[in-house]
Amino acid sequence: MKIKLSFTIIFLIFLIASCSLLGYQGDEKMDTLTLINLSDKDLLFEEMIFKQSFDTLIQEMAVFNDTKYYEEHTLKARDTVKFKTWMTANFMDYFVLFYYDENIVNTIPWDTIRTKYMVLKRYDLSIEDLERMNWTITYP
Fold first, then answer.
1. Predicted TM-score of the model (pTM)
2. What's the CATH code of the domain at 107?
3. N or C: which end of the chain has fewer CB within 10 A?
4. Average pLDDT, stretch 30-42?
């Protein structure tokens, strides 16, 4: 009985340790990202995390058509938004942020926004950049 109990305890410890190791993705960093809008324009923002930087990443589909996404990615004039973000140094090295003029997104077809690259500002930032900026990105 004692041997069975000991074996069960050892097995459970091994199982928990294995699951923890399997879930570990490397040097993970999770922090609160603060976006500050110092302009007089209402903005929409789109963030992405990638292993490498790209020439253009504007999504083909109009992501702002989704009401919940739209609300969560609105940054009003002279306002601040905070949200949790994470990057994994072994997998995701670049944080890419696009700012769009909310009026333009609401009046011009998304395909036109994409083809004419109607982006107010784009940031390509590494974990080191974000740490140096104290996880705060200010527009303009």
1. 0.74
2. 2.60.40
3. N
4. 91
* 99: β partners: 45, 121
Q: Say whether pLDDT at 105 is over 80.
A: yes
Report CA torsion sign: 112, 117, 122, 125.
positive
Any domain includes 57: yes
Structural domain contains residue 2: no
Q: Based on C-alpha coordinates, what's the Rg of the chain?
A: 21
26 versus 86: the higher-pLDDT residue is 86
CA–CA separation, 99 and 48 (whole Å) = 12
Model pLDDT, residue 15:
41
Q: Is residue 4 part of a domain?
A: no
User: Tokens standing for 63?
Assistant: 């992501």
**How does the average pLDDT of the chain come out, rounded?**
79
Which H or E element spans position 2?
helix 2-23
Classify residue 3: in a domain, yes or no: no
